[in-house]
Amino acid sequence: MLLLISANPEEMRLGVIITITGVAVVFAALLALSIVFNQIPRILKIQIRRKTIKTKGPDSKEKCCPEVSSGNVTAIALALHLFFDDVHDKESTKLTIEKVSKRYSPWSSKIYGMRNLHLK
What we know:
Layout: H1 9-56, H2 70-87
């Protein structure tokens, strides 16, 4: 069904302004969030470095974040995968529907509808 809306140019201009403002607000919020999310790792690294300097002193030669080899990361990932994959049982995909003997449920009762609610 085709609806024809007759609006004067002033109303059309106001609608365009509201639309452009809304789109600009959404994109500005998305840009701000992406900047914040991209800066979080840098901020966390600075905080970790400050904590290690406080605990070990400024003359400490150790790195704040020890390097982990790719072999160790692979072994840990494989161990976690095997552990979490083993937790779930292998269930059959056969679907069985059993008839319920008690068909009444207060959840499906129509007598407690909003129209029957009498407030005093």
